[in-house]
Write a structure and sequence with these properties.
Layout lengths: L2 H27 L5 H11 E2 L3 H12 L1 H15 L6 E2 H10 L10 E5 L2 E5 L5
Parallel strand pairs: 1-2
Antiparallel strand pairs: 3-4
Helix pairs in contact: 2-4, 3-4, 3-5
């Protein structure tokens, strides 16, 4: 083995150690988000009048399963592969993965400038 081979090996080992060190640092920097952080982030990236209702109902009905779906969406958002979501898009995503989230339906009729509600509670 010549001196050049020894020097080349030393340099290669140094480079490999640096690469491994950077990989460990990036792995430790990418920590797992808590469920509360996931819910907070999904509320921030979802826009629309019904977003809060959809998120709350999904959490109430499906709990950890809904959080796992939200976690995937948040990870896509944080990696810049997903932009802001509209409430209707979030609803469709939940439906497509099998999480039916019922929404409160309200019919409003305005007659002579006054709102009239139609429903079982107005008999």
């Amino acid at each position: 083995m010549s001196i050049d081979d020894t020097e080349r090996r030393r340099i290669m080992m140094k480079i490999m150690m640096e690469i491994m060190s950077k990989a460990q640092q990036s792995a430790s920097a990418k920590r797992e988000l808590t469920n509360e952080e996931v819910i907070q982030l999904i509320r921030q990236i979802t826009k629309g009048e019904r977003a809060g209702e959809i998120i709350d109902n999904a959490l109430q009905l499906y709990g950890d399963t809904a959080v796992q779906v939200f976690r995937q969406l948040v990870e896509l958002y944080l990696s810049d592969r997903l932009g802001e979501l509209q409430d209707s898009e979030l609803y469709q995503i939940l439906e497509r993965v099998g999480l039916h989230v019922p929404l409160r339906t309200r019919i409003r009729i305005v007659r002579h400038g006054r709102e009239e509600n139609i429903g079982a509670s107005d008999k």
